[in-house]
Amino acid sequence: MSTEAIEIDVAAESWTRRHLLALEDLSAEELTLILDTAARFKEATGGCRNKISALEDKTVANLFFEASTRTRTSFGLAARRLGAATVEFSSSGSSLSKGETFIDTAKNIEAMGVDVVVVRHRTPGTPQLLAQNLDCSVINAGDGPHEHPTQGLLDIFSIRERRGSLQGLTVALVGDIAHSRTARSNIWGLKALGAHVIVCGPSTLVSRRWEELGVEVSYDLDDVLPRCDVLNVLRIQFERQQMRPFPSVREYAHLYAVTQERMAKAKPDMLILAPGPINRGVEMTPEVADGPHSIILHQVTNGLAVRMAVLWLVCGAAQRERS
Ligand code: NCD
Questions:
Q1: 146 CB less than 6 Å from ligand 1?
Q2: Which atom of ligand 1 lies at the shortest distance from residue 66's CA?
Q3: Of 206, 221, 41, 231, whose CA–CA distance to 155 is shortest?
Q4: What is the position in ligand 1's atom list of the atom closest to the CA of 182?
Q5: What's the CA gap between 251 and 256, in Å, rounded?
Q6: What pLDDT digit, counting tens, does each position of 283-311 carry?
Q7: Which of 65, 119, 150, 151 to mutate to test the pocket of ligand 1 (most atoms within 8 A of CB)?
Q8: Average pLDDT of every residue of the chain
Q9: Are 137 and 106 in contact (CB under 8 A)?
Q10: Does 3 have pLDDT greater than 60?
Q11: Amino acid 2: pLDDT
Q12: Does the pLDDT at position 4 exceed 70?
């Protein structure tokens, strides 16, 4: 792995946020700046493989209080690709179990010279709370069902990479919309960049009130699929549900699983995305997950590029704020 210093020629000075807490309040210009910076980092690192010197004097701490495979690894690798030091924190085995408050734990970690805290927590608003109490940068890696901004960004980056622009595309989010932070972040980002968004799933998981966010609501996947340029297939989040939202997983799969048979009605260039983890046979069949429309593993690679961009931009803004 080679390390080289590079010039990131994007207008990074126009980025003024020390934290990335949500996509809801980002403008189209801010979203585009992140996407352009991510594209630049992807190129400069040979497709996210090589290290570059961009954040060598920085330390990034991962504070994950919920399960994670992709997001946690991706943030850690992205930080190290930029030359930053990383710290991994797990709630089990920490002083939280001795009665220390969450804020005290975070403040102690910050006091060790951490520049960026990446936080995942089951309680919505936790990243905002940390941002109010810490001097360092805070990045939301998923707060309950609220938002998962870097997932939204990497989904949008992956679509833009294939299609050039989001303007005028029809993107359907399919599945457990009610409990999905990925859905919320996608909706804000996609709409700001000019896409038409459909949310589709059983009525127990997709209320009509989603229309208030300016999206189309559908309960019929077979009806919307032929119109879509992109299907983003979301996991059924059993761990967040108080009660089962449909009689059986088999019935859900019958109505909403993306199968080869359903794909016969899709546009020939329709993209299949999934934030992962996927439950093969529930949300989609293995033939679809591994088939020619799927860009699921490209999303994972692009996650590194997007997280490199976000880490670099928030660190730059924090530095400008201090000077
Ligand atoms: C998502 C998450 O945790 O919100 N996954 C991810 O970050 N890659 C979606 C999910 O868990 O289904």
A1: no
A2: 3
A3: 231
A4: 4
A5: 9
A6: 999 999 999 999 999 999 999 999 999 99
A7: 151
A8: 93
A9: no
A10: no
A11: 44
A12: no
Counting atoms of ligand 1 from 1, which one is nearest the CA of 120? 3
DSSP 3-state of 152: helix
Enumerate residues 6+ apart whose C-beta is below 8 A from 299. 154, 155, 158, 273, 274, 275, 276
Q: Is the CB of 182 under 6 A from ligand 1?
A: yes
Please tell me if the CB atom of residue 152 comes closer than 6 angstroms to any atom of ligand 1: no
**What is the distance between the terminal CA atoms of the chain, rounded to a whole angstrom?**
34
Active site residues: 70-71, 98, 120, 148
Which domains are delineated in the chain? 3-147+301-322 (3.40.50.1370), 149-296 (3.40.50.1370)
Pocket test for ligand 1, best of 66, 148, 150, 241 (most atoms within 8 A of CB): 148
Cα(122) to ligand 1 centroid in Å equals: 12
- Which residue has better confidence, 252 or 95? 252
- Looking from the CA of residue 180, the nearest atom of ligand 1 is 4
Contact 189, 148 (CB under 8 A): no
**For residue 121, is pLDDT > 80?**
yes
d(CA 53, CA 41): 11
Q: What's the whole-number mean pLDDT along residues 259-268? A: 97
What pLDDT, in 10s, does the model give residues 212-255?
999 999 999 999 999 999 999 999 988 887 778 887 889 999 99
**Is the pTM for the entire model greater than 0.90?**
yes
In the chain, which residue ranges form alpha helices assigned H by DSSP?
Answer: 28-44, 70-81, 102-110, 126-133, 149-163, 181-192, 221-224, 249-256, 260-263, 286-289, 296-322
Q: Which pLDDT value is given to residue 320?
A: 93
Cβ–ligand 1 distance for 276 under 6 Å, the answer yes
